[in-house]
Amino acid sequence: MRIILNVAHTYDTPGKCSPDGKFREWEYSKTICGKVADQLKRYGYTVSIVEQKTFYGPSQGLQQVVNDVNNLTNLSKGEAILVSIHVNASGKTGWDTTSYWSAWTTKGVTKADKLADSLYWAAEQVFKKRGRKLSYGPKDSVSNDKEENFYILQKTRCPAVLTENFMQNNKKDVTYLKSFQGIADIVKVHVDGIVAYLQKS
Questions:
Q1: Percent of the chain, pLDDT > 90?
Q2: Rounded to an integer, what distance in angstroms lies between the CA atom of residue 82 and that of residue 45?
Q3: Pairing of strands 80-88, 46-50
Q4: Buried b vs exposed e over 14-27: b needs ≥16 C-beta within 10 Å?
Q5: Which domains does the chain have, with CATH numbers?
Q6: Neighbouring-strand partners of residue 4
Q7: Residue 59 predicted with pLDDT over 70
Q8: Is the overall model pTM greater than 0.85, yes or no?
Q9: Half-sphere exposure of residue 130, counting CA atoms within 13 Å on the CB side?
Q10: CB within 8 A of 106, min separation 6: which ones?
Q11: Counting beta carbons within 10 angstroms of the beta carbon of residue 35, is it exposed (0 to 12), middle (13 to 18) or buried (19 or more)?
């Protein structure tokens, strides 16, 4: 089984940062992907990191990521999973107080639902004791993850989940995300969730 981690966006993607520009989603995601990969490799798993090389524009850049993921999936003879690690924003201009963690799959019942459930299980173990909220989608027959046909989830050939790790336009979230404890928590959720899924599989 190959575990593929995807770094969110690029260094030059417009708008993917805190209102003051000091927290950048791409940079944070790259750090987390590296730490998650290191731990999973120590456990003996095969891990690849896929990164969009430059912004290009919304469609071209995402297609490069999809192609890279699908090439790795082919190398693994279909035995691969993808987790794309992001930081959300509330959509409001400037700083806001909205805060939650979530995981997304494509709409309907898919193979990715069980991976999302394992990530939610890990998130519940870690974040609830910190007093941090999780956001769920409507319960279907398998999972209660949030669902949207994001391009990278829809076009890749392996089970794929996109995590949104709190809010980059919430000052308290940014402080937590950048802290030693916050980084350790985010890494632990992804490592524990992925390992739990693989052990069940």
A1: 84
A2: 14
A3: unpaired
A4: eebbbbeeebbbbe
A5: 2-200 (3.40.630.40)
A6: 48, 82
A7: no
A8: yes
A9: 22
A10: 112, 147, 148, 149, 150, 153, 154, 160
A11: middle
